[in-house]
Design brief:
mainly beta, Immunoglobulin-like, 6-stranded mixed beta sheet, 4-stranded antiparallel beta sheet, 2 helices, 19 strands, 4% helix
Protein backbone atom coordinates (compact mmCIF):
# COMPACT_ATOMS: atom_id res chain seq x y z
CA UNK A 1 0.00 0.00 0.00
CA UNK A 2 1.21 3.48 -0.79
CA UNK A 3 0.01 6.93 -1.79
CA UNK A 4 1.40 9.72 -3.93
CA UNK A 5 0.83 13.47 -3.60
CA UNK A 6 1.32 16.18 -6.22
CA UNK A 7 2.71 18.76 -5.93
CA UNK A 8 5.09 18.06 -3.07
CA UNK A 9 5.94 21.76 -2.81
CA UNK A 10 3.66 24.79 -3.09
CA UNK A 11 5.05 28.33 -3.07
CA UNK A 12 2.66 31.23 -2.54
CA UNK A 13 3.54 34.91 -2.90
CA UNK A 14 1.15 36.86 -0.69
CA UNK A 15 0.48 40.15 1.03
CA UNK A 16 -0.97 40.75 4.53
CA UNK A 17 -4.74 40.33 4.44
CA UNK A 18 -4.77 38.31 1.20
CA UNK A 19 -6.12 34.78 0.53
CA UNK A 20 -4.88 32.15 -1.89
CA UNK A 21 -6.47 28.79 -2.74
CA UNK A 22 -4.47 25.80 -4.00
CA UNK A 23 -5.05 22.07 -4.48
CA UNK A 24 -3.10 18.86 -3.91
CA UNK A 25 -3.88 15.65 -5.80
CA UNK A 26 -3.50 12.40 -3.85
CA UNK A 27 -3.25 9.16 -5.84
CA UNK A 28 -3.56 5.52 -4.81
CA UNK A 29 -1.21 3.57 -7.15
CA UNK A 30 -1.65 0.29 -5.26
CA UNK A 31 -4.07 -2.60 -5.43
CA UNK A 32 -5.85 -2.07 -2.11
CA UNK A 33 -8.44 0.52 -1.07
CA UNK A 34 -6.93 2.97 1.42
CA UNK A 35 -8.21 5.67 3.74
CA UNK A 36 -6.37 9.00 3.72
CA UNK A 37 -6.25 11.37 6.67
CA UNK A 38 -4.93 14.91 6.08
CA UNK A 39 -3.55 17.09 8.88
CA UNK A 40 -1.64 20.34 9.15
CA UNK A 41 1.90 20.40 10.51
CA UNK A 42 4.59 22.91 11.31
CA UNK A 43 8.04 21.94 10.03
CA UNK A 44 11.65 23.02 9.74
CA UNK A 45 14.75 21.71 7.97
CA UNK A 46 17.69 20.03 9.68
CA UNK A 47 21.19 21.12 8.69
CA UNK A 48 21.25 18.49 5.94
CA UNK A 49 17.89 19.66 4.57
CA UNK A 50 15.63 16.87 5.89
CA UNK A 51 12.12 18.09 6.86
CA UNK A 52 11.30 17.75 10.56
CA UNK A 53 7.59 17.87 11.44
CA UNK A 54 6.03 19.30 14.61
CA UNK A 55 2.51 19.79 15.95
CA UNK A 56 1.17 23.25 14.99
CA UNK A 57 2.01 25.99 17.49
CA UNK A 58 0.74 29.53 16.76
CA UNK A 59 3.60 31.11 18.70
CA UNK A 60 6.29 29.36 16.66
CA UNK A 61 8.35 31.70 14.48
CA UNK A 62 7.33 31.71 10.79
CA UNK A 63 4.56 29.13 11.34
CA UNK A 64 1.58 29.48 8.98
CA UNK A 65 -0.54 26.46 9.97
CA UNK A 66 -3.10 28.69 11.73
CA UNK A 67 -3.68 30.51 8.46
CA UNK A 68 -4.85 27.40 6.58
CA UNK A 69 -8.26 25.82 6.08
CA UNK A 70 -8.58 22.67 3.96
CA UNK A 71 -11.07 20.01 2.91
CA UNK A 72 -11.72 17.14 2.98
CA UNK A 73 -9.80 16.00 6.10
CA UNK A 74 -10.49 12.31 5.40
CA UNK A 75 -11.43 10.31 2.33
CA UNK A 76 -11.13 6.84 0.81
CA UNK A 77 -9.35 6.00 -2.43
CA UNK A 78 -9.90 2.84 -4.41
CA UNK A 79 -6.99 1.39 -6.43
CA UNK A 80 -5.88 3.71 -9.23
CA UNK A 81 -8.14 6.56 -8.09
CA UNK A 82 -7.29 10.17 -7.28
CA UNK A 83 -8.59 12.59 -4.68
CA UNK A 84 -8.21 16.35 -4.44
CA UNK A 85 -7.59 18.29 -1.23
CA UNK A 86 -8.14 22.03 -1.58
CA UNK A 87 -6.69 24.47 0.90
CA UNK A 88 -6.90 28.22 1.41
CA UNK A 89 -4.16 30.30 3.03
CA UNK A 90 -5.41 33.57 4.55
CA UNK A 91 -2.58 35.83 5.69
CA UNK A 92 -3.56 37.96 8.70
CA UNK A 93 -3.47 41.71 8.28
CA UNK A 94 -0.43 43.34 9.83
CA UNK A 95 1.88 40.32 9.51
CA UNK A 96 5.54 41.25 9.06
CA UNK A 97 7.13 40.43 5.71
CA UNK A 98 8.89 37.07 5.86
CA UNK A 99 9.10 33.47 4.73
CA UNK A 100 6.36 31.53 6.51
CA UNK A 101 5.55 27.85 6.13
CA UNK A 102 3.19 25.00 6.87
CA UNK A 103 2.69 21.46 5.63
CA UNK A 104 -0.17 19.10 4.82
CA UNK A 105 0.53 15.53 5.95
CA UNK A 106 -1.29 12.70 4.21
CA UNK A 107 -1.43 9.57 6.34
CA UNK A 108 -2.41 6.20 4.90
CA UNK A 109 -4.57 3.99 7.14
CA UNK A 110 -6.02 0.52 6.45
CA UNK A 111 -9.69 -0.02 5.59
CA UNK A 112 -9.94 -3.70 6.57
CA UNK A 113 -9.26 -5.60 9.81
CA UNK A 114 -6.63 -7.68 8.02
CA UNK A 115 -4.71 -4.59 6.92
CA UNK A 116 -5.00 -3.08 10.40
CA UNK A 117 -2.50 -5.63 11.66
CA UNK A 118 0.18 -3.77 9.68
CA UNK A 119 -0.91 -0.33 10.85
CA UNK A 120 2.42 0.67 12.41
CA UNK A 121 4.29 -0.07 9.19
CA UNK A 122 1.70 1.68 7.05
CA UNK A 123 1.88 4.89 9.07
CA UNK A 124 5.56 5.23 8.23
CA UNK A 125 4.62 5.75 4.58
CA UNK A 126 2.93 9.11 5.17
CA UNK A 127 3.78 11.84 2.71
CA UNK A 128 3.71 15.63 2.94
CA UNK A 129 3.20 18.65 0.73
CA UNK A 130 5.35 21.53 1.99
CA UNK A 131 3.78 24.97 1.68
CA UNK A 132 5.91 28.13 1.57
CA UNK A 133 4.09 31.43 2.11
CA UNK A 134 6.26 34.36 1.03
CA UNK A 135 4.79 37.53 2.54
CA UNK A 136 6.16 40.70 0.96
CA UNK A 137 9.76 41.03 -0.20
CA UNK A 138 12.11 41.24 2.80
CA UNK A 139 15.81 41.55 1.86
CA UNK A 140 18.00 38.46 1.68
CA UNK A 141 20.75 38.25 4.31
CA UNK A 142 22.84 35.08 3.89
CA UNK A 143 26.38 34.38 5.07
CA UNK A 144 28.80 31.68 3.90
CA UNK A 145 30.32 30.75 7.25
CA UNK A 146 32.49 27.82 6.18
CA UNK A 147 33.58 25.78 3.16
CA UNK A 148 35.28 22.43 3.57
CA UNK A 149 35.81 19.03 1.98
CA UNK A 150 34.48 15.91 3.69
CA UNK A 151 34.81 12.24 2.80
CA UNK A 152 37.09 10.52 0.31
CA UNK A 153 36.90 8.89 -3.09
CA UNK A 154 33.42 8.74 -4.57
CA UNK A 155 32.00 9.89 -1.23
CA UNK A 156 33.84 13.23 -1.35
CA UNK A 157 31.63 16.26 -0.84
CA UNK A 158 32.24 19.99 -0.62
CA UNK A 159 30.14 21.35 2.24
CA UNK A 160 29.10 25.00 2.30
CA UNK A 161 27.77 26.14 5.69
CA UNK A 162 25.12 28.83 5.23
CA UNK A 163 23.55 31.12 7.81
CA UNK A 164 20.36 33.01 7.04
CA UNK A 165 20.12 36.10 9.25
CA UNK A 166 17.10 37.50 7.42
CA UNK A 167 13.35 36.85 7.41
CA UNK A 168 13.23 35.62 3.83
CA UNK A 169 13.42 32.04 2.56
CA UNK A 170 16.01 31.89 -0.21
CA UNK A 171 16.89 29.19 -2.74
CA UNK A 172 20.42 28.49 -3.87
CA UNK A 173 21.91 28.57 -7.33
CA UNK A 174 25.38 28.96 -8.73
CA UNK A 175 28.40 26.80 -9.52
CA UNK A 176 31.26 24.88 -7.95
CA UNK A 177 34.39 25.28 -10.08
CA UNK A 178 37.40 22.98 -9.77
CA UNK A 179 40.84 24.28 -10.90
CA UNK A 180 43.98 22.20 -11.41
CA UNK A 181 47.49 23.21 -10.34
CA UNK A 182 47.95 25.32 -13.47
CA UNK A 183 44.81 27.32 -12.72
CA UNK A 184 42.74 25.71 -15.49
CA UNK A 185 39.08 25.01 -14.74
CA UNK A 186 38.67 21.24 -15.12
CA UNK A 187 35.12 20.90 -13.79
CA UNK A 188 32.09 23.10 -13.24
CA UNK A 189 29.24 21.63 -11.21
CA UNK A 190 25.85 23.39 -10.91
CA UNK A 191 24.76 23.87 -7.32
CA UNK A 192 21.53 22.17 -6.19
CA UNK A 193 18.41 24.31 -5.82
CA UNK A 194 17.66 24.05 -2.09
CA UNK A 195 15.88 26.32 0.41
CA UNK A 196 17.53 28.12 3.32
CA UNK A 197 14.79 29.02 5.80
CA UNK A 198 14.65 32.36 7.66
CA UNK A 199 16.87 32.71 10.73
CA UNK A 200 18.34 29.24 10.29
CA UNK A 201 21.53 27.44 9.31
CA UNK A 202 22.03 24.59 6.86
CA UNK A 203 24.73 22.75 4.96
CA UNK A 204 24.80 22.72 1.17
CA UNK A 205 26.52 19.53 -0.04
CA UNK A 206 28.00 19.30 -3.53
CA UNK A 207 29.90 16.40 -5.06
CA UNK A 208 32.98 17.58 -7.01
CA UNK A 209 33.17 14.22 -8.79
CA UNK A 210 31.85 13.63 -12.29
CA UNK A 211 31.52 9.81 -12.70
CA UNK A 212 32.08 10.15 -16.45
CA UNK A 213 35.23 12.27 -16.02
CA UNK A 214 36.96 11.40 -12.72
CA UNK A 215 39.65 13.81 -11.57
CA UNK A 216 43.25 12.54 -11.80
CA UNK A 217 45.22 12.28 -8.58
CA UNK A 218 46.48 15.66 -7.41
CA UNK A 219 45.60 18.81 -5.53
CA UNK A 220 42.88 21.15 -6.75
CA UNK A 221 41.50 24.54 -5.84
CA UNK A 222 37.73 24.59 -5.43
CA UNK A 223 35.78 27.82 -5.80
CA UNK A 224 32.13 28.21 -4.82
CA UNK A 225 30.03 30.96 -6.42
CA UNK A 226 26.61 31.15 -4.81
CA UNK A 227 23.66 33.32 -5.81
CA UNK A 228 21.05 33.78 -3.07
CA UNK A 229 19.35 36.89 -4.38
CA UNK A 230 21.66 39.48 -2.83
CA UNK A 231 23.42 42.17 -4.91
CA UNK A 232 26.72 40.29 -4.67
CA UNK A 233 27.57 36.61 -5.02
CA UNK A 234 28.80 34.61 -2.06
CA UNK A 235 32.27 33.29 -2.93
CA UNK A 236 34.45 30.81 -1.07
CA UNK A 237 37.52 28.67 -1.73
CA UNK A 238 38.96 25.45 -0.36
CA UNK A 239 41.44 22.74 -1.37
CA UNK A 240 40.60 19.29 -2.68
CA UNK A 241 43.11 16.42 -2.69
CA UNK A 242 42.45 13.45 -4.96
CA UNK A 243 44.37 10.24 -4.44
CA UNK A 244 44.22 6.95 -6.31
Amino acid sequence: MSIEASPLRVEIQAQPGSSNTQAVTVTNPGQETVRIRATLSDWYLSRDGAPQFESPAPERAFAASEWVRFAPPEFTLEPGMKGIVRFTVTVPAGVEPGGYRTGILFELTPTTPEAAKGRQVLLKSRIATLVYVHVGQPPAAIELTNLEVRGAGEQTQVIAALKNRGRRTVRTKGNLIVYDGAGTAVAQIPLPDVPVLPESERDLAVSPNDPTRPLPAGQYRVELKLDVGMPELLVGETTLKVSR
